[in-house]
Amino acid sequence: MDNLDYGIVGNCRSSALISKDGSIDWLCLPHFNSSSVYAKLLDDKKGGSLNIVVDEQYTVHQYYLKNTNVLITSFRNGNDWFEVLDFMPRYRTSDQVLYNPPDLIRYFRYRSGKPSFKIVHDPKLEYGQYTTYTIKENGYIKSFTKRGPYDSLYFYSDFDYDKILSAEMIDMVQDHFILLSYHQKILPQTVERSYLKLQRTEVYWLNWSEKTTRYVKYGDAINRSALVLKLLSYDKSGAVLAAATTSLPETIGEERNWDYRFCWIRDASMVVRVMSHLGHQNVAHRFVNFLLNQISDKDEKIQIMYGIDGESRLTEKILHHLDGYEGSKPVRIGNDAYRQKQNDIYGILLDVILQRFELFRTSLQNSEALWTMVRNIVNTVEKNWQKPDRGIWEIRNENKHFTFSKVLCWVAVDRAIKVAGLINMDSYIPGWTKLRDEIRKDILDHALDHKTGAFGQFYGSSDMDASTLLMEQLGFIEASDPRYVATVRETGRQLLRNGLMYRYKNQDDFGLPSSSFTICTFWYIMALFKIGDRKEAELMFRKMLTYTNHVGLLSEDIDFESGRLLGNFPQAYSHLALIETAVLLQGGEVTEEELLLDILK
Hints:
By secondary structure, the protein is α+β, with helices and mostly antiparallel strands. It has a domain at about 5-210: Beta-galactosidase, Chain A, domain 5. The chain is built from 14 helices and 28 strands. The strands form nine sheets. It has an eight-stranded antiparallel β-sheet. Strands 1-2-3-4 form a four-stranded antiparallel β-sheet, with no helix packed on it. Strand 1 and strand 2 form a beta hairpin. The two termini are about 35 Å apart.
């Protein structure tokens, strides 16, 4: 498998990646950030998987049940035909209690003939660091560790357990089920019970999708991306994950491999803003509560990221025993970036807080606590905006005066002024206005490259950075301003390759990046649209949609030459940018005939 050809299923507690041929290659239980049960994704031999093996005469096809996060893998050999419906239960019970246990169900739906296959159950608990023992008990199969941290997995099914344990051929003439659980079940597990959970989960997702704002153009892509973002939200705390995986490389064979199963304040805030526009306010409410829980004291320093349960220490560790995705070492768990200083987090965060006040001016819960947070953030910005930082891309080797970080400091104060106006705290506005204007003048005086007339990556730099494309979207500058137009043009000249964007091209502490950061291409498309290049923007967007995998998912990166997906997957950043771009293009006036003419050219 060479293109991250996986579907994802989940229930806002954990998730699993299932290959296009039906193998569960990544599953962590009981939570997103728990150690893995299956991790073949990161090591073919030592990672473990739950695979369905059919002979080569079978045709395998995978797709989502429309408007849901139920994944269907169809296996067909002439008249012999069965389907596997994978899902993690999520629905409300009759007394309106949310049911989303640390379970994964594989519902085997019989279609016709007499299909046959093997089920290869090979769990490797605790990232496969120690031997996993698997035994048959009364009514289930149990896998467990004896060394290291104790862990266990329960496997329930109405298939013959002996045939599963010996990987013998199984003939199928009726529906069956497999249930994987972190917990031992109290009630008997049956195919009827699994089918009921399937139906209830399907209804839950259909109802959720029905609430998503509908768009005429690119509606399916928008809805699939919204479903992905929902899956990456963690019910227990309100955190939003950057991605469901760890250590998928930005470039095959290199060491840019990070654990993304955490909540970056900036990324999550951008996701929340987009989800709110799509009509899903509950995601925003829970995230605001998550923030207030982490920053409960007035002197609390805001980190750039937290664990999904609010952990502030995310110590990085290398799993030396795993070979990595296609041999790309190291495999990391934890992320030392939590120590970094990034001044850009404040602006995006206050942008979300402003949105909360605008939508719920008189009824917003925790409004006084949020106002305290607003004032504390402005105080922090006032003390720190003139200092260098590591920037949006978390460059690890040195601090610089990154233009995007300065712009986001301006955004923070600008949004704070707007919040103050909304809640009649006018006495703060004059002082904050002076600070906002001071930051703006500093950016205009030092970030512009006088040769190109464009905003550089950092003060005094002529190198471009895709993040500066957001200056217009954030309200710092008008799209018609010659300085912004020059920034868009120069960014394209320096960073565009084969229709895909670099984040930046100057070397960092890991050398020259060799893959495109997916979100940056979407940013460029939106910037082109804003400055009037609408046909080019539409064409580029349609091309970007061709890079999604077989079920419409995107990772963090795209290889410039092959177009294969790379990096952690599925990536919240990429899907939120897809939504933003698709929504923006709704306002385009480009006809199909104009686009066809451009393609023919």
